[in-house]
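In this supplementary section we document a worked example of the pipeline. Step one takes a protein sequence of length 963 as its only input; no multiple sequence alignment statistics are reported here. Step two produces a three-dimensional model, which step three serialises into structure tokens for compact storage. The input and output of this example are shown verbatim.
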Amino acid sequence: MARAAAPALVGRSAELARLTGALPGAGAGVGPPLFVLVGEAGVGKTRCLSAFLDGAGRGGATVVLGHCPPVSGAELPFAAVADALRRLSRQAPGRLATWLGTAPSALVRLAPDLAGTFPDTVDPAAPEGGPVSRIFAEVLGMLRRMAGQAPVVLAIEDVHWADRSTRDLLGLLIRAIADLPVLVVLTCRGDEMAPADPVLAWLADLARARPMERVELPRLRREELDQLLTHLLGAAPEPAVARRIFARSEGNPFIAEELLAATGGELPATVRDAVLGRMARLPAPAQRLVRAAAVLASSGTEVPHALLATVLDTPDGEDLVAAARAGVAAHLLRTTGTGYAFRHALTREAVESDLLPVERERLNAAAANALGDGPDPVTSARVAYHWHAAGDAERALAAAVTAGLAARASYAFAAAQELFERAITLWPRVDEPGRGAGVDEAGLYELTAEAIYLNRHERGAVELAARALALLDPGAEPERAARLHLLAGAAQWSYTGDARAALARADTALELLPEPHPTGAHARAARARYLLLLDRDAECAAAAVDAGRLARAAGVPAAEASALVSLGAAHDLLGREPDAIECITAGRRIAEEIGDGESLGRSYVNLACCHERRGRTDAMLDEVRAGERAVSRFGLDHTVGVALHAMAAVRLTEAGRWAEADEFTAGYRDVDGNLRVRMFHALVLLYTGRGRFADAEALLAELRRLLATSTEPQVLEPVYAVAAELALWRGDAGAAREAVHSGLECLAPPRTHRLRWLGLRAEADAGAADAATVEALLGLPCPVRVAPEAAYLSLARAETTRLERRADPATWDEAVALCSGTGAHYLAGYPRLRAGEAYLARGDRTTARARLRDVAALADRLGAVPLRDSVTDLARRARLGLGGDPPRRRERPGGLTDRETEVLALVATGLTNRDIAQRLFISEHTVGVHVSRVLTKLGARRRTEAVAIGRSTGILPLTGRLR
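The serialised model returned by step three reads:
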């Protein structure tokens, strides 16, 4: 993959700010501190320094930059000074002669490029360089002359390679220029200096002589690396690509760029060659140790010293320690508490890539044997990995299943999924696989499907549950078949939102089982859950009571916890909040006691929903955050955790707390299934509010695809609603109507409050409503259960005043109060805008101005572009100042004023004088006056002739309407 853009500086704003903040001190000559930029190779020290130096140069500072070269085997005296002088001779040859003064003989010998500037200074037969004292005097004189003209930044890169002469010279200079406006910046690789390295002692000595600030450059965080990849590609990277590059680069920018440039995910040659070059310089025992460590570290970051000794079959003595010390000194390994780790994941990968296949297999087998049969999930997973890498399919299969079960028991569902999927690939390669694995093939599919469902709600869970069912005879194994039907239903619901199909699966499970049966209790609890999702609240309550009774009788607390949560949610929807809270918290207590993460998570989702439906935003957020902490203990961060975040983001968007909403939506573009629907709903709301219509439309198209088979009202209604709202803000009343009508066709009245309002808003925007359509929207039976529903019905009633062309600000003010009372402050901006419009129509400009100023302030605070455009347009049409100086009268082509041009544009749309008067909040008589003036100024006899002249002269566009 080719790189599409030059390297970008990402994630270094704090470090740049520290450097830039010291420049004014340098300019004032107050003795700024010495800065040392520290970081590993490739982390971006040079890029950060370059950005700082560019800014300093643009700000008027003189930049002196030199590099210390990585000379091997011998020192190159004063290399950084010579490099700096050569750069200055190329960049500012005329000024350099002034800075150097007369006869800089030592520096000319050091940098022969200067000989042309000072031809009579050096004896060609004289040796190169010169004594430190002479070079020091000439460089110090140069810096003093520079600093007399402007602040100076002296930057020396890669001082970890600095020769002794350069270190001595810099030490003298840094002490001597403490009173000058000179900012000194050094860069070094902290990971490449051993404790006894003389450069470390030199830096410590400098810190005693002058204040020193150490600026650490860490690796990039995931979101920062995504920004870098976006810059390089010119578009956001695919989620899978971003995850892979972050995992392999570990946030190192240089390595990330190399991985992006490499094809097929292969190891970049630049990285491999650098690592193997270091390996080649190690003694043979150290090379053997590093190779063994590379294999051991492939299954876990840390490699214990004792484990290395076992794998190498070497006594743990001085020879082994010496070999390890050599690996650390070569900057391939670093020490940990009990052993070693590689400096970087790709360092390990490069070493392993150089192994012969037979070496790799032998070392992996030795690693698996050395690790043994550890009971903990981590050791089990490592053993499984090494038997697989050793090519021993039989042992690898058994170890993968064992490790997968251990991961499942510790709620590490992602690891369990990976291990079980590996076991599936190994299954056909082993004779009698079930004997070693301890499960049959259907059982392995069931374990894998369950892990996928609990980990990320992906399609694979549906497919594997179906494969497991295909291998079973339901008559011979009814309990297993029933369990798999329940799993298949849950997986199908989580991926497609098809609660009706999931309910049918639960019914099938019940038909297979005798009464009473423990699995039957789970099936009845599942029935209650899916009835709830289908908005069959009363049926859900009855089914949940029945399921709870059977679960208690059969001693199945997990089914009881699930039934109680569903019963509580049904109570909430039926208007019985105290009963709802009591049941949900009772189910939560049971789930916590038995470690049922899924029912525990559902309790937080439904109780947060209880608060959200009543407009209690802060209480909802408390529940969301508590739920997030609770489900993380059970490995459900990417399922229930995402659902909680999406709920919070939607509510915060309506509440006008968009910065918080952004935090809840960050990093979730790669979720799948039902969770993708929930998160994309939140993002469409945010994008629409900000006027990012193209982004919102793209996500909406994806939502429509995802919901092609969904039967779940709680996810269908929001999508129809955001589609209508997006269309309305775009000015497309027809598309809004279509979205509303599609939603009303498939949703029952309890879910239609918002759609009813949006439908009436679309009719009012269209200005020519069909009477039957309006009557149908007004006549929908929509019982009000909670405050937000009352707010939507109030908005719907207010829209009828627009349909009747009746200015009724009190109705809009009532809608504002109801929206604000539920905490939906952004939503309240729309009726407040309409209230201002109604007050204008009534002639109350003072109250109108107050309403519109509030809307403008809200829109400006949020960055709500469409809302801001709407209030600006309304104020302009009404000639109502919202602050600052009033607009000045301006002549247009043809001598028309702004208002006359506006009237002409409205005439061009076919509006009558009465229509224009209502739109511009002026009298019909005033419109007639404006039209007469337009006709006179343009020399037209009729309105159509004036429009034609306006278009031919450029006063009006040739086609289209002025909005």
